[in-house]
Amino acid sequence: MRRICYDLFLMNNKKLYVYILLILTIVFYIFNFDRTISSKLSLLTISIKNIYLSNYTYLFNAISKHMSQADQISLLKNKLFNYEQYKILYLTNKNKENNANTIKMAHIISYANLNNFSKVILSSKSNINKISALITANGYSAGIVVNEGYKNIGYLNHHPKSNYAVYIGNKHVPGITHGINNNEYIMIKFIPLWQNVAIGDEVITSGMDNIFPEGIKVGKIISINKLSAIAEAFVKPYANVYNQTYFYIYSKDNNTITNN
């Protein structure tokens, strides 16, 4: 009887040991698996953080560079406008001892007529009380500006209404500009027939019209047509007025033009 009880006790203990060993194995596996998962997740988290920090640094540097470039461009634009104004002030005042004239920038808002690119509306809050001159940023004549119906209208060189007084060549032969629609050239009319004008002569503003100052460059003579009493000449202008976005308005005396 004792033997039987002892055998039963051993069998139960063996089962208990097996259960304990099995539980320990399972617990060890679970904890080891958890460490493996934790290690993998930690590596993944570090990778994500590294990618985030790398992209954040790249974007921050790119935005900072862009802002710096934008500030630099704005500064250079202001310097350019100041330089252009100084240049035009020099060109318009070099033949004057005393000058109360004004020079202001005016942007092109739109065409006055869609079928005519040489007539434009200019940005200006102050109305012009008489005809004023249009000058490009590099100091060439571009046309005239007048007030029409509370709008400042620019008649560019190629418009038939763009009329101002000029000198031709070294002898300062007088003439009047007259634009030609849809043509790259402009015409000089009313040239005295007895005056010698040659192809290649330079044309400048004379200032005799009280619009332009004397000495603003217009272009060069490319052909001459002699009539019965006067002569006409075709000029290739220096200014390409069609690709401009703004002009400088030169006004004499108390004309005031404000930059809008």
UniProtKB/TrEMBL annotation:
Record has Transmembrane as a keyword: yes
Domain Rod shape-determining protein MreC beta-barrel core, residue spans: 123-250
Pfam families, alphabetized: MreC
A single GO BP: regulation of cell shape
Keyword list, A-Z: Cell shape, Membrane, Transmembrane, Transmembrane helix
GO-annotated cellular components: plasma membrane
Transmembrane segments: 16-33
Protein family (similarity comment): Belongs to the MreC family.
The protein, known as: Cell shape-determining protein MreC
Organism: hydrothermal vent metagenome
